[in-house]
Amino acid sequence: MTASITYPELTTIVEGGTKIFVPSMSLHSNIATKREPVFFNSAAELNRDISIIAYRSFISNSISGHNRNPKNKMNDIAMADSLCGTGVRGLRVAVEVPEVNQVYLNDINPLAIDVARKSSVINRVEDKCYFSVNEVCKFLLDLANKSKTSSGTDQEGKIDKIRRRFTIVDLDPFGSPANYVDCMMRSVEDGGLVSITATDTAVLCGKHPEVCLRKYYGLPLNNSYSNEIALRLLISLIALTSSRLGISIYPLFAHTNMHYIRFYAKVVLSKKQANKVFTNIGYLQHCFHCGNRAVSVVQPGGGTCELCYAKFSTAGWLWIGRIYDKDFVREMVTKTLPLQCDGSIQAYETSGKATMDMDNKSEDNQNSCKKKEGNNLEKIQKRKEKHLQKLFASCISEHDDIPYYFTSDEIASKLKIGPPALTSIIESLSKAGFRTSRSGLNQTAFKTEAKINEIVAYFRS
Ligand SMILES: C[S@@+](CC[C@H](N)C(=O)[O-])C[C@H]1O[C@@H](n2cnc3c(N)ncnc32)[C@H](O)[C@@H]1O
Ligand SMILES: [Zn+2]
Fold this sequence. Notes:
Elements (H helix, E strand, L loop, with lengths): L9 E6 L2 E6 H5 L16 H19 L14 E4 L6 H9 L5 E6 L2 H13 L6 E5 L2 H10 L20 E6 L9 H6 L1 E11 L2 H4 L4 H8 L9 H19 L2 E10 L4 E9 L1 H4 L6 E6 L6 E4 L16 E7 L6 H9 L19 E2 L4 H4 L5 E2 L3 H24 L8 E2 H8 L6 H10 L4 E4 L2 E7 L3 H9 L1
Helix pairs in contact: 2-3, 2-11, 11-13
Bound molecules: S-adenosylmethionine and zinc ion (ZN).
S-adenosylmethionine binds next to α3.
């Protein structure tokens, strides 16, 4: 006896410039869960906006010769949305990044692919979209292993065009991407781009260190900058997996919130470059007693804090290199607009709702759904643009070679004083000769070469 599958009631929404069929129930529940017949998380709209901006930046850099391998033809740009759900990310690429001429949408859930196919039709991009119902690694590797010239279809006739490797591969799983990193790296072309989400933030931020060590080969720390440690653990897993395959990665952009970590990297097939991976892998030592931080390129054998002699806690191994390509992010700044739909598309065709996760505080709360209506839409759009410009500006100015940050709240509350303004902290420490900047991963934080005792001296002055 086969279990009957109920087709979900659908609603169309508009995200960016793209119409998407989504299950009506996903708009009426506050938290997106695995149990929905087709997964859709309206709270991830900003996350997907950033993808569109990043892919536009990547293609623009490629056209000007900065990114892709020049032997890859610019008229053959293929993106794989390998765990596509409703297909919202891939479909937005098909509509909003017109240089991408093939979008492959895959999900293990046949209902999801049915819904994605319907959305491709209403956006009139069905000719450039290829659909498959497959296990993600099978999807990525089957296509990557077939010759570019071979023709054929998968068993369900869902993929009718065969290519070799993808220009862009997106991996957006439930929880950890660790199971799929090998397949992702094997399926991307030389000079291509990978974008990865990890939503197992509890593991990566230190709640389950043994699970983190097993999945990411590094220990996390549950401290005030655990999101940066989490990102660096994810990058090191991708870099080490890649190096094993003779592939080198170059971080382009990253952002995090309470619920996810998202990372973009350029991929270069080069054993010689991959041999250098360990120049960017190391350890972080953190003193929970005085707040001292230290970077180590070799595994520290325990060790004590040189400032207060308490025992250091260790995170890693993890990525200690840069996390942004500043030119890439500068290009992102120019690619932010237009994100919204054009006038021909009704902002809301139904009474659906969508969310805006404008800052870490509101991102914490998936319940903060706001209805986009009439004039509100313009206001929301302006706030979103402002938020993105602020985020990109912080990333561009960040000293991202320093793999940790400080928050003024953390220091001020220990000293039982009011925190100085972030701008004056950065100005004063810089004047005192310490490289100091904002952090793209926390809008209330600063990065500095100054040690905690030097920062404390400034706070007390
Ligand atoms: C987090 S959702 C993807 C969300 C989507 N990318 C978006 O932006 O809305 C993860 C998706 O992966 C699919 N999935 C889970 N395990 C899979 C597997 N092993 N192979 C292929 N798809 C899988 C689920 O059906 C689900 O639609
Ligand atoms: Zn200490």
